[in-house]
Here is the input.
Amino acid sequence: MLLERINELKLVETNAPDGLYRVNFGQTEHITTNFSLPSISTDIDTAEYYVLCPEFSSSFSDGDIVFINSRRKKIIGFLCKSAKNNTVLVTEKCDNLCDFCSQPPNENSDTHLFINAAQAIIEFNSKDVVGITGGEPTINKSKFLKFIDMLNIANNNTPLHILTNGRAFSDVDFCKEVVRKTKNRDVVWGIPLHGHNQALHDECVSSKGAFKDTVNGLINLSYSGAYIEIRTVVTKKNYRFLKNITELINSSFAFIPVHAIMNLEPKGWAKRNFDNLYISATDQISYIEDCVVYSGLINQEVVLFNYPLCTIPDNLRGSYRKSISDWKNYYPDFCDNCNEKELCGGFFVSSKGKYLDNTIARIKL
Amino acid sequence: MSDLTKLPFNFRRLHNSVIVSNLAGQHQFLSKEEFEYLVESQYQRIPQHILASLESKNFICNNSEVEMRTKILTSKYASRVYNSLLPPSLFLVVPTLRCDHDCHYCQVSRVSESASGYDLEEKHINDILHHINFLSREYIKIEFQGGEPLLNFSFVKKFVTKAREVLANKKVEFVIATALGPIDSNKLDWIQDNNIQLSVSLDGSELIHNKNRPSKQINSFKNTVDTITKIQNSYKNIDISALSTITKESLSAQTDIVETYTKLNLKELFIRPLSPYGFATDTWSKLGYTADEFMKFYEDTLDYIVRSKIKVVEFSALLHLKRIFSQSTTYVDLKSPAGIVFGAVCFDYNGNIFGSDESRMLWATTKSNELILGKISSPPKETYKNQNTLALLKDTFIEVNPGCSECAYSQYCGADPVHHLSTQGDLVGHKKNSFFCEIETKMFDFVFNKYYTDNSYKKMFNNWLGECC
Here is the structure.
């Protein structure tokens, strides 16, 4: 599984077959439903399913959802109350082939992923947002609709942040169906747009026709009143056109609450293509500035993700977000004496070594 | 590049440049040469960043994208019309037509302070609130207009108290448009305690202000200035804004207004041209001017602000900028279809309801009952669907109005049917003879030209947009 593992522990022994379990130390009351997962704890004497793992009880709490993989001797935190971001993977298939993909797709079967995700979300029953990611979650429309149905039938109302390339929404009927099925749920749709025209976007996602599908999808979804966050990953190919992407958003769709400009994460295929893709943050800034200033004029919110704060000039700081999660970031040695470390998201751990943006010299002491 | 194609757009030539605009509400400033290249499809000669903007803003596209781009333009245009047709948030209430001023440019035919029969009766309060509640969504601005609303202060107080009760689940702001004559500490206390904003007129220097706004009781300029100072010193929570109506008198003294405002530490200035209706013809010849005369004055005033780096925001320019850049529909003059009912609804002292303040003004002089939407006492449900309302609205989609349909500014301008009805006897009017069209065209020329050719203006305008969004 390609899940971002927030919490992965070494399993010593278990009687539980591989699968999802609900952590139950008996500290909180749990109401079992038709959809309940089996519970698991460290109590070898009384629990139906137990694990032996020294860190288990300090890592998880009642209600967390874990995945047991006895073959690989692993316990994976699937949905955890202590995590800042909970994200579940529903498929690894994708109809885009972005050359910077952090979780490269494959053709593996995905039905079990959808079912695991739905069961886990229902059982976790969180009021906080859970992320849905892929692959492309809507690549199989009927599976995606069934997934939403499962949550609805269980009366689950967990808010979702769904990362999709939006192509499926070029199908008006599908779009209507999804909007109808999610009308009582808070959903943020994270949809990428990497270029202001077909040539550039299609090149970035290595898929002919992707731009047309995504733009048509954005038209349908935005005019349905959906809450959309458009995401642009900045590379050598598109950094000079950031303002143009904002122009396209402004001139083409209904209100888009957020346009996120994202610095490249050196992960997955982005590592393989790093030299062809990565443009240093310092070289991006004048283009980012054009984009942010223009966004201010047209009342479009722009946010900057995955940048070290020292690369962002004062007039753009309102758009800066400390976005790299605590478990994914680090601060290189040259950050040691920086007095703005607290405000800064730092660097991706995966950028250590040759992927580190070494143009970043303007450190505030 | 040969596979690029043009999508529909309008254009207007400025000095050495051309503004193009399209149904998505987008514009692009082009040099004469760039425009010629665009027209002649010599795309390779257009600088890459301009070409990219033209493409992003749906002026041109790849041949294979035409169907998609057409969908974009039509859906975007539909949504812009939809935004113009959202329920109104501005409601004007006229507690009295009596006034202590004798302003020469008064357009509401105000009556003397002691006249009887010109007050809105308190029994109407519930009905008005019923109408407001029926028409509005979450945000409401209720503005008391006159006459001088403070001459019927007990009505204002009762209205506000009742409104807070009836509209408890909505967000309501109150404004009193006042000449500040009958104001005293008791009233100011109440105004501050109730979080009411004040909108006042301040026309420039003492000489000009008092010429424009004479009063038998008081020195209007001195009273206005003293009251503003008193509020700034002792009533810091009262939000006060001022506007300046420009008459022939003002034209020769372009720095007076800015200097008066600066001295008073007012950060906002709103320069308004006269509207030539509600007047007798001889009044216009005494007070009026040509559009060129007004624009000369207006440009000199803005030049003075930009060169002297005074921190004051001029709202006429700002409202045009907001319309251009963020397609704002909050300014009733610049809406298509017109801001009749959907821009503002006016409840007059005599129980009539109008679809705009201008309708009320025109009715005051012409008594044309076609302008009346209905009566305060009639049920809201039946008031806003009558034939006259529809007639006032249906000819005001300027994208298809003769004289507007080919104009590059039709994406940003407005129709002002009441103006054209009043000056030409027709809701659409011949735009060639329209003072409204002439002023607005020159206004947009000015704003576009300065924004794109003068960096100090661009900086100032960007700041205004940034601060006042």
User: Anything to note?
Assistant: Residues 66-84 of chain B form the longest helix (19 residues). The domain at 86-289 of chain B is CATH 3.20.20.70 (TIM Barrel). The longest strand of chain B covers residues 171-178. The interface with chain A takes residues 24-26, 49, 52-53, 55-58, 61-62, 64-65, 68, 71-72, 75-76, 79, 325-326, 462, 465-466, 469 of chain B (CB under 8 Å).
